[in-house]
Specification:
Low-confidence stretches of chain A: none
Number of domains of chain A: 2
Number of helices of chain A: 6
Largest sheet of chain B: none
Low-confidence stretches of chain B: none
Order of helices and strands of chain B: HHHHHHHHHHHHH
Oligomer: heterodimer
Order of helices and strands of chain A: HHHHHH
Number of helices of chain B: 13
Largest interface: A-B, 25 and 28 residues
Shape of chain B: globular
Structural class of chain A: mainly alpha
Number of domains of chain B: 2
CATH class of the largest domain in chain A: Mainly Alpha
Radius of gyration of chain A: 21 Å
Helix content of chain A: over 70%
Mean pLDDT of chain A: 83
Strand content of chain B: under 5%
Chain lengths: ~170, ~350
Amino acid sequence: MDASVSPVFWILAAVIILSAIAVVSLKNIFHCALFLILCLFSVAGIFILLHAEFLAAAQVLIYVGAVAILIIFAIMLTTNLASRTIQQVNKHALTALFGCALFVLAMVGLFRQSGVWNWTQTALPDENVLTIGKLLMTKYMLPFEVVSVLLLAALIGAIALAREEKS
Amino acid sequence: MELYPVFMWLHDLLESTGIGEPWSTIISYGFLAVTVFGTLSILALFLVWWERKIAGHIQQRFGPMRTGWHGWYQTIMDAVKLLQKEDIRIATRDKAVFFWAPVVCFVAAYLAYVVIPFGENLIVADLNVGILYIIAVTTFTVISLLMAGWGSNNKYALLGGMRSAAQVVSYEVPMAVSILTVIVFAGSLSMVDIANAQQGNIIFNWFIFKPPFGIIAFLTYITAATAEANRTPFDIPEAEQELVAGYNVEYSGMKFAMFFLAEFVNLFTVSAIAVTLFFGGWHGPLLPSWIWFLLKTFAVILLLMLFRWTFPRLRVDQLMEFAWKFLVPLTFANLILAGWFKYAGWHW
């Protein structure tokens, strides 16, 4: 990574990790949701550093604009959740910690083994968005459409579940 | 592209004094941020005064008259008063959330100005995702409404926050799809490219003059934008005469002022976007580009203000039905047909 951007990268990385820890450790579920938003927003910042502006905008639009707001709505609509503190850990905390430690060890081992990272030397295309749009409509047409159908199915399912039965 | 004249001048000046490279850039950007912030604050104060004058004249009264010529510094005095007011903080509030909600609200309104072209080369950054960036950052407004509703720890504020959020989220869909129709015309997401695509041919290259899609897109956009900016006929979030207020009911002093100013900044934002997308942006003859931009934007704002003082308020169920059952299908049909025309290569 370029030396001039690295301080920004480190700040963003610290914010991401700290807010992610806050999401899984705070007792107030609304605060957890807000820290999730901060975490996802900082990930968008990492995308900007990598010159992937479209991805960053999409990240904010989808995760902050849709997913996070949905989560907050769900929290607000749940009765008696407002003043309750939630339990974030259970009896399996130690086992989970062991599992995570194993995962970290495995990842560190893998990274050390692979040695050098593969960097592409080709310059970024000027019309980033245009290229993404063209690829989505040609080469990746099928996955793109399948995802759309999946989202539509989720939407219809949610409406069907939320609708009151006429008795 | 960064507000070229100002940014480059300041950057060169700092370089000549012998400050190192990272600092000169950082200071120049900081100066830019402060400039945009100052401009926005003055604009918001002016818009509040203008709105009050228009409201007054529509209702056959004068509006503010006692502070200066036609009360021109009324809103400045109001701002000073709000600054001095006691900041009432209810004991049962959620401290951090209550504090940050107005900040998030104002920052979300402010962030959009990174990509708004005020004139030729008068843009902070010409991102190639321009308009998508605006749609993305303005979603933080919804977060701030929900934060304010929750942080107040008051059932009316909570309900008000959810009501406002539901409205803004619903009207975001037709607004984004109307904007997409313009992107189909322009073939780019960058605000500068969109404005440049409408250059020439007097005014008939403006995207609003691309019948029928341009005019439909503009009408749906301006409707959705009115709702996004929480203005009558869609001002259920704080229907003064009926509901007292919504998410901001527990806020006072400067925190309330931040919500209030953000609303007027949003009004300017949606009008500036409308000008860039449909009225040729800063392009115009004779006068400097930024004057043209401001003139057009104030014309759109005047239109929105006339809406506010002529139409009755919609009921909340009518509001939602109008968005989902009328605007969304209309904008989607418009988008698909416009795309088809463009694909077929028909000129109109």
